[in-house]
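yo

u said u wanted the structure for the complex thing, so here. seqs first:
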Amino acid sequence: MTGSPADIYSEAILDHARHPRRRGRLEDSCAHAEGFNPLCGDRVEVWIDAADGVVRKTRFEGVGCAISTASASMMTDAIAGRSIADARASVERFIRAATGRDLPDDPPLPGDLEALASVRRLPMRVKCATLAWRAAASALDDADQDLTSAPGAETKP
Amino acid sequence: MTRAREIKNTPAHGRDARATIAVDDFIDVRSEFPILARPVHGRRLVYLDNAATTQKPVAVIDAVRRFYEEDNAAVHRAVHALGERATHAVEGARRTVARFLGSNDPDEVVFVRGVTEAMNLLAFSLGPTLNPGDEVVAPLSEHHSNFLPWREACRRSGATFIVAPLAVDGAIDLDALGSLINDRTRIVAFAHVSNVLGTVAPVQRIVEMAHRDGAIAVVDGAQAACHTPIDVKALGCDYYAISGHKMYAPTGIGAVWGRRERWAAMAPWQTGGSMVERVSIDDVRWASAPARFEAGSPNAAGAVGLAAAAAWLGEIGVERIAAHEAALADRAIELLEAIPGVRTHGPREHRAPVVSFTADGVHPHDLATVLDGEGVAVRAGHHCAQPLADWLGVAATTRASFGVYNNMEDAGALAAAARRAVEMLR
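structre next:
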């Protein structure tokens, strides 16, 4: 391994950690999921409000380290306004990158996300960086379920 | 003395060594720890995670290697020459460990994997003597290994698990503890030294409180054995457990000392080979202690390594080590407290060299990762004492813990790296 473990704290990541995007709760959201890291006690909650198969709104809340906070903030950037299918693909793509399990035809990640995914070099911190993404995957599944199982869902405000 | 050590300046000797020894006078043992010579991330290793596990001196590594190269065989069974040598090595190790703990009776020492196994052994073997209405008391600050085994023993037996509160500085609140111990109390279990705050418990006083009401006093010595001379007879406790890997010995070996009459009254918690006198199809007679509590083939090389570590500590003198480490911890606390927004936890006085700290606006895991990049190894987390972390009102702390090979340069490196990390992360 080259470089210092501290390299993970790029300016972009520290900026997300200091000024997280979309932090807060969504009360009337259609999907909600929680992630917990027993190693350090970090906890994150993710809300997704989807309509017409699109992530209309997403928020997160939680206490955690800079990596997990930045990661949650960047996750909301990656899924907000996207179709549920695209959002899920992005989430899965990031988790593969952060855990060193890229598929041969995986496209490169955008620069900031690649910087975050370089956490794969710090095995003890991978869970911090993937916590919110795993919660998002679960919330996206629920959002999808709600849409497919509730006939009137597309008229939901 | 197996090897000459460089002695800087004039070493302090004798009874008053603790008061007079200066850090620069301390014998330099760094060269005896091969791992300290290996750079980490291209930097000099500043190893300050000793409360989690200590590094191993050549004396210990060699003792283990020598056992495998010269003596290895099944212990307590083989009648051939190697079998006798291996048995002799393990029983010799038992004598050394007993003496290290202040006992002249090796049969009072049971080898275990470490304090976790020791507490499970005690909780399972003493468990059948617990009944509904009985109480087991442990302080809130305990490591999970001296908390969960007792809580589970209470759950199984219907006894009540009582958590004793802490004083403002995180020490055990002795008044409150005294009022919680009564004639229903069967067991009082507590750590000699806190693995998070470095608090040193007044063992004798707590043992007296327990015994006044006829309760058994169980002491977790995992964090104490490398910082404090142990004399179980003077402490007066009923059981005292240590983990080898936290006192420069190999992983996977530890010991629990118990009073001979206590062991004699206990049923085994694990059964199998080596722990019986006679087995028939429908009957069994257990061996006496320590064999009764050592089912299966023992970790013979580990026992030899544990004894080598005890002997090595004895050569240097645990009191001298304690004085050396205390000076380092004091300096580290002073330097860390000088960083804006950084606060150390635990008592100021009479503490072991375990320094937990937090920095406003900086998560301990981020701090530890940045320190790692500078070659400074610390622990971040709840340190397997979540009720204590809750009590402190933090999810985690960063913990720097000092050992015999640390020096003032290490204390300075810790503080300098912490200052840079806090500035970068905040």
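DSSP finds five helices and three strands in chain A. Confidence is low (pLDDT under 50) at residues 151-157 of chain A.
cya
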